[in-house]
Amino acid sequence: MSRRIDVSDLDIYYGSFLAVEGVSMAIEPRSVTALIGPSGCGKSTFLRSLNRMHEVIPGARVDGKVVLDGQDLYGSDMDPVDVRRNIGMVFQRPNPFPTMSIAENVLAGMRLNNKRLKRSEADDLVERALQGANLWNEVKDRLDRPGAGLSGGQQQRLCIARAIAVQPQVLLMDEPCSALDPISTLAIEDLMVELKKDYTIVIVTHNMQQASRVSDRTAFFNIAGTGKPGKLIEMDATETIFSTPSVKATEDYVSGRFG
């Protein structure tokens, strides 16, 4: 599987409001793509459209195409549940299920998909997912304790373990470090670099240093004014976006002159 995402002429609506307009981009497989831009420019809406999570809001719809490995994710034959199984999501604030143990949190996605696992298979999956999220050594002796009892950074890595346990092709991360301290942030950033060996990762971040540290390509979104749709202004190799962008608005944003 190449795990490449091709987006073509994507418009995203909430009811009659056009939130994001005319986005076309290629998201390369086994890489980290960062989405940056000022608040309200549609980057999180665009991110959620990649696995149809925005559809939980009534009246949400899209025009255009999102294609993963040749499959149109908005095709009439596509089940949104299958889309979300293939394209996992990690949210801004860590959200482990509070009444579940660490191990049960990891297995939650499999159980939601009605996957029946033998005890040995479940144990192997828990260890593999927690190893993948670089959390195993910290929690292996307390897997039956509540996931909510972990620190914020550990909770976020537990959520990443939960996401990768169902073996998605793509991981979406919506500001995954914004609620974390600098040490936990560094741990998540290191983890992203490791995970891109196996996953295609798309991250929304307001942190320019984070985008420059972890991403291979960066897409800058902007908005023309209140009530106007967000648009993709420029996308390129991260080094280019931060050193020699083609558009002045991009340069102003990454240098801190606005936004």
Summarize the structure in short.
This protein is an alpha/beta fold and 259 residues long. The chain has helices at 43-49, 80-86, 102-112, 119-132, 136-139, 152-165, 182-195, 208-214, 238-243, 248-254, and strands at 5-14, 17-27, 32-36, 60-68, 71-72, 87-90, 170-174, 200-204, 217-223, 230-237. 35% of the residues lie in helices and 25% in strands.
What does this structure look like?
With 259 residues, this protein is an alpha/beta fold. The protein has one domain: Rossmann fold (3-Layer(aba) Sandwich). It has ten helices and ten strands. The strands form two sheets. Strands 6-7-8-3-9-10 form a six-stranded mixed β-sheet, with helices on both faces. Helix 6 runs parallel beside helix 7 (182-195). The chain is globular. The chain starts with a strand and ends in a 5-residue tail after the last helix. 41% of the residues are buried. The mean pLDDT is 93.
List the helices and strands and how they pair.
Elements: E1 5-14, E2 17-27, E3 32-36, H1 43-49, E4 60-68, E5 71-72, H2 80-86, E6 87-90, H3 102-112, H4 119-132, H5 136-139, H6 152-165, E7 170-174, H7 182-195, E8 200-204, H8 208-214, E9 217-223, E10 230-237, H9 238-243, H10 248-254
Parallel strand pairs: 3-8, 3-9, 6-7, 7-8
Antiparallel strand pairs: 1-2, 1-4, 4-5, 9-10
List the defining traits of the structure above.
Rossmann fold; 10 helices; 25% strand; alpha/beta
What strand order characterises the main sheet?
6-7-8-3-9-10
Specify the overall morphology. globular
Q: Can you tell me the CATH superfamily?
A: P-loop containing nucleotide triphosphate hydrolases
Report the portion of residues in β strands: 25-35%
CATH topology: Rossmann fold
